[in-house]
Amino acid sequence: MMLDRMEGNAELKSSVQLMLAARRLTHSVLLVGEEGLGAGFAARCIAADYLYPAGGAPAEALLRGECCRAVGKPGDRDSGHVETGIVREAISVAGMGAGGKYLVSQVKAMRSEIFNTSLSAEGRAVLLYHVEKMNEESANALLKVMEEPPEGVLFLLTADSLAGVLPTIRSRCVSFAVAPVSPEQCARYCAAQGVDKKTAALYSELFDGHIGTVLAAAQDEARTAQVEKALQLAKAAADRDSYAAACLLAAYEKDKAGAAALLTDFRAVAAAGLRQSPHAPVQGIAAQRALRLAEAAIQRLGAQVNPKIVLSVFAAKFRAL
User: Fold this and answer.
1) Whole-angstrom Cα distance, residue 319 to residue 303?
2) Spacing of C-alpha 195 from chain mean position
3) Class assignment of domain 2-177?
4) Averaged over 43-60, what is the pLDDT?
5) Is the pLDDT of residue 120 over 70?
6) Spatial separation of the C-alpha atoms in residues 316 and 298, rounded to whole Å
7) How far apart are alpha carbons 80 and 193 in whole angstroms?
């Protein structure tokens, strides 16, 4: 089964596989796990096992995310439509509004598609990523189809946290937690996916067994460079070197999104230092203080404070670590 490709999470896998084998899988499943743990991958595995029990090319394509996609334009409630993908039996929905918020036009397009097109013999799967980003309007549009879905339709939802999901959605799903694996398991898995063994070991320690984050960081050159800068910033924190930190951060003074992304990776490195990872340049009390500084800076960036001011203050406080 495709779900066997998911590392760890034995309880989740066995529960879902038993339900699939008995054809007793509820029509709505919510997978909850922090960003980078692989909740989206788990959802695609379950969809593949539901639609294609024998596996094969369609199941592999679904694991890669090559399915139909519900899209829309912000501010246009009638712009929603479903783009055709290689896998016709699966539709994915991911928020396209500001901050990744769901558009009601996307949900309405998905709903129309599954009600107005004939089902194949395999059925239909709908993948809804990060449903914590649904507002009440898009959630109400989803409820209309979740309450009385067409026969053979399986909804697979993911969220970063259970608390972030609207109660009206949460109450209609069976929920499973997606847990991190150990750094050692993570490193073995990522090395098997083609990541250099040393890089896999380093990133698995820094990102605490978050397989999706490790793969994203190792397989994208820009993200790899960002992690390297986060490590340099952590070294500056360990050395209480505000000047080095300010020089590194100067390139981000007009790039709020880039600054937030860098500080997020820096926060992960500082957290690794708290766990006493030998790969983290900053350790102990300094790591704890650096972590707090990063969290405060990320919050201020999200509150629309001028990035130059946020980063200048952040770097200056390195002297007191």
Assistant:
1) 25
2) 20
3) alpha beta
4) 93
5) no
6) 16
7) 36
